[in-house]
Design goal:
By secondary structure, the chain is of the alpha/beta class. It has helices spanning about 5-15, 20-25, 30-45, 60-85, 100-105, 105-115, 130-135, 185, 200-205, 225-230, 245-250, 280-300; strands spanning about 50, 55, 90-95, 120-125, 145, 155-170, 180, 190-195, 215-220, 235-240, 255-260, 265-270. The model has no long low-confidence stretch (mean pLDDT about 90).
Length: about 300
């Protein structure tokens, strides 16, 4: 058995398909099948049930699956240990963050990190904060950038960024001439809201007293879509100020402070309390903390 076979087996188990697994590991379906056959010959038992539409683990495969995961983890740990031996950040840094953070916060952070530590390969796991917490807790991710609040006794959590939510309107909207606006005035216009997430929960609470007059025109799955539709004057929305920086500079939207409410989106750095971070992860945490402190001084 070699690790290529091991990784292929784990991917087939995850995807439930030889063809989809082949796409993930960059091998043809026939090559994937050959690797699985070699594993089954070595272990003398069927590891995968191919009889249905979806490939599933056999009882023997379920036993082997647990060992395969442990073997992969041991290999990753050994790579990290050897990379850390020199004291210079190298190897792979695994970071978890949601889509908005990946798009509007991390590019600058990763840009600086890669300039300082070019040997490090960065792997990004993009998902909701609660999913990232799960990955942190099981060790699949080294460091997470999470939207607060987060409850997890096993994680060390430190606030790093705090961004105010403001009203975003098209320059054509009558509210665009105002410097501040009341919530009661916002609800007179069609709203474009995110479908899910922390900001949606804040907005649901903010607009609850105005439920009778609320006009929700669209519920959209991404911040990029919300910004584009607001710029097209299809409605108004609330957004973290830093997310619309480029659109404001281009004159496509205008941001307006709320008169009678203060809402914030707060990001935190998180990692396991009981695990020693790799040199690469330690350098990332240190750099992110330093950048956060510098940003807070600038804002002050």
């Amino acid at each position: 058995m070699d690790f290529d076979q091991l990784i292929t087996f784990l991917e087939v188990a995850k995807q439930g398909s030889f063809s989809r697994a082949g796409e993930k590991v960059f091998r043809s379906q026939s090559a994937v099948s050959a690797q699985i056959r070699q594993l089954e010959q070595e272990y003398g038992d069927r590891l995968l049930d191919r009889s249905g539409k979806t490939v599933k683990l056999t009882p023997a495969g379920q036993v082997f699956y647990e060992y395969a995961q442990r073997l992969r983890s041991l290999r990753d740990e050994s790579l990290t240990a050897v990379a850390d031996h020199s004291g210079t950040p190298r190897g792979t840094l695994r970071v978890g963050a949601n889509e908005a953070t990946c798009l509007y916060v991390l590019p600058e952070v990763f840009g600086e990190y890669c300039r300082r530590y070019p040997p490090v390969q960065i792997s990004i796991y993009r998902n909701f904060s609660y999913k990232i917490v799960e990955k942190l807790e099981n060790g699949a991710v080294d460091v997470g950038i999470l939207t607060l609040p987060i409850q997890s006794p096993s994680l060390k959590i430190q606030s790093i960024f705090r961004d105010k939510l403001v009203l975003m309107v098209s320059p054509k909207n009558p509210l665009a001439k105002h410097k501040v606006v009341a919530v009661s005035d916002i609800v007179k216009y069609p709203l474009l809201l995110p479908k899910t997430g922390h900001t949606r929960r804040l907005l649901d609470k903010l607009f609850r007293p105005y439920q009778a007059e609320l006009q929700v025109r669209m519920e959209l799955p991404s911040i990029g879509m919300i910004k584009s539709f607001v710029a097209a004057d299809l409605g108004v929305s609330l957004i973290s100020a830093s997310f619309a920086r480029d659109e404001v500079e281009a004159g496509r939207v205008k941001l307006i402070e709320l008169q009678d409410a203060e809402l914030y989106r707060e990001l935190a750095l998180a990692y396991r309390r009981d695990r020693t971070l790799s040199v690469a992860a330690t350098a990332f945490v240190s750099m992110l903390r330093h950048m956060a402190v510098s940003l807070k001084k600038t804002e002050a």
